Amino acid sequence: MAGPKQQQQPFPSVTAANIFVPLAVVLMLWLLGQSPPPPPDRYSQFLDQLQGGQVAVVQIGADAIAYALKRDRLPVDEANGQRLGGLEPFRELHTTVPVPGDRALVPLLRQVHVRFAAVLPAPTPWWNTVLSWILPAVVFLGIWMFMARRAGGPLAVGQSHARIYAEGQIGVTFADVAGVDEAKAELEEVVDFLRHADKYARVGAHIPKGVLLVGPPGTGKTLLAKAVAGQAGVPFYSISGSEFIELFVGVGASRVRDLFAQAKAKAPCIIFIDELDALGKSRTAYGGMVGGNDEREQTLNQLLSEMDGFEPNTGVIILAATNRPEVLDPALRRPGRFDRVISVDPPDWKGRAAILRVHVKAVPLSPEVDLEGLARRTPGFVGADLANLVNEAALLAARVARATITMADLNEAIERVVGGLEKKSRILSEPERTRVAHHEAGHAVVGALMPGAHRVEKISIVPRGLAALGYTWQVPFEERFLLQEDELRGRLATLMGGRAAERVIFGKLSTGAGDDLQKATDLAEQAVTLYGMSRLGPVTYERMQPSMLDATANPRRAMGPGTAERVDAEMRRLLEEAETSAAGVVRHNEAIVRALADELLNHEVLEGETLRTLLAQAALPLSA
Ligand code: ADP
Ligand code: MG
Ligand code: ZN
């Protein structure tokens, strides 16, 4: 339908395009007019006439010659026998000079006794100079403005491109987000900050300025940020980190300034910076020697100084999202900046069922559809995959013009979504899941029994991102700063627990323990070379602080080849002992490892009471 924007306008609107395009055309014509095509040259004819004594006077210019023939040499008009131009004293003829400054010309002129003179160069009119300098500049300015306009609004180069959603416009609330209950609970608090800022101000509490959402792609970080704004009923400024980075250095920084200025005027409100990693990459990691990225650095510095610059409790809260927290500049995490970090994890099957329920609200489901069964069959799917799954099923139903979505549609949709994901290897086959479950159970059992063990809080076989297929989360009973020797060995054994379980249960190893081995080897190396916890005695072989200038240099002290061999041997001994003790624990508690793994396969995540009861039955073998 024709909206008001499409109505006929009484006057042609003045835009950069319809001013500057004609101007450019005029300029080009003018440039062409500057150099008219030269007339056919008659220089040789002129020389002939000169030598034949026909020329009366000559005026020599820089690149043209004007001359007049003697009166009696003017051509005769055939019709009446009169000499052409006969009434004038002489007629001027022109020729161009083929070679600038023909040196033979002057002697020739003297020889034939012709009067000659040079012409004073005509002064260039002032407007000519002005035009030749200013007009091109104006045209370039026009083109630049035109491009800036296309990128967003007249002269918008420095302005932020934040999409602004006024309150009530967002249309997303916490009810639309599911399966990420912990993140939601923490964000409820942020909503309260926005709603009742005065309550916090009264008791002198500082509301956090920045909250960072961290999680793999598609887990609903953007959705959560919108939901916070929707729930609090405040305006929402959204911009993506990559949009700050522009061609022109300094533009990103002025966008940040602009964004904050706008937001402060609208407080309380939320600024959401998506893909913060595009902007906030560690400055040291990429800058320094190779020059770095000035634009990104300036933009990041501007962001940091804006965050420092506004008072707490102004009612502006900055949410940011990233799936690569490890590349972020540490300066972003300092107090007063993004000091709150909320992890948005991939959902377990219950979470997946909840997300499915959110997304099927808008589609007609046939009654036999079993969402829980669907959730159990889609391990590794994140919210975005599940939304995609429901949509694919709806497309399938629509293709055959069926009114409702059936279980068969949903099953086929799983295949399609998995097909799209396979490259990312997020979906584990059943035997692989079984292996990961036993591996994690091994970590948990060994971890719970070792000296100085941390409490095993949660085990999960929900794949996280691309690297970890499962994880065991241990929380220290108390804050620890020192590690005793037996505790260090216990930690080594815990790291070996996954590998030990794979060996005991399946009789074979897999590559799944690679990361564990890496960590264990690092720790064993430190035990030997840094802490003197080996037969090498109280000697340190490592420099605590490798020189800043020479980070690539080997941080180890110079040591004799014999010592180096002994260091390696000691490390190996520590690691082998750790593996042996881990294998002993797993063998002794095999039933519990299997029980834990079964629970894990059923529920994907184990925590709380169930986990504690199972682990409480585990015991150290007598030999240990
Ligand atoms: P991220 O920003 O973490 O990459 P998005 O928030 O952009 O993920 O999620 C993309 C889409 O996937 C959302 O618009 C929503 O439809 C769906 N989605 C993702 N996570 C969830 C969730 N936890 N609950 C409901 N829907 C979700
Ligand atoms: Mg996102
Ligand atoms: Zn492991």
Structure description:
- The protein has 624 residues and is α/β, with parallel strands linked by helices.
- Helix content is 48%, strand content 10%.
- It is built from 22 helices and 13 strands.
- The chain has helices at 16-34, 43-51, 105-111, 126-152, 181-195, 197-202, 221-232, 241-244, 251-265, 276-279, 283-286, 294-309, 349-360, 371-376, 383-399, 407-421, 430-449, 485-506, 514-529, 561-588, 590-603, 608-616; strands spanning 55-60, 64-69, 92-96, 115-118, 163-165, 210-214, 236-240, 269-274, 316-322, 340-343, 455-460, 471-475, 605-607.
- Strands 5-7-8-9-6-10 form a 6-stranded mixed sheet, with helices on both faces.
- α1 packs antiparallel against α4 (126-152) and α15 crosses α16 (407-421).
- Residues 1-13, 152-157, 286-292 and 546-553 have low confidence and may be disordered.
- Adenosine-5'-diphosphate binds at residues 177-180, 215, 217-223, 321, 355, 358, 383-384, 387.
What can be said about this structure in brief?
By secondary structure, the protein is of the alpha/beta class.
Summarize this structure as a short list of keywords or feature phrases.
624 residues, alpha/beta, six-stranded mixed sheet, 48% helix, disordered N terminus, binds adenosine-5'-diphosphate, binds magnesium ion, binds zinc ion
Number of E-state strands: 13
Total number of helices = 22
Tell me about the biggest sheet? Answer: 6 strands, mixed
Model regions low in confidence, pLDDT < 50 over at least 5 residues: 1-13, 152-157, 286-292, 546-553
The CA-CA distance between the termini, in Å, is 81 Å
| SS strand fraction | 5-15%
Radius of gyration: 41 Å
What is the strand arrangement across the widest sheet? 5-7-8-9-6-10
Instruction: Give the structural class.
Output: alpha/beta
Shape: elongated
| Portion of residues within helices | 40-55%
Associated small molecules = adenosine-5'-diphosphate, magnesium ion, zinc ion
Please, what is the average pLDDT? 79
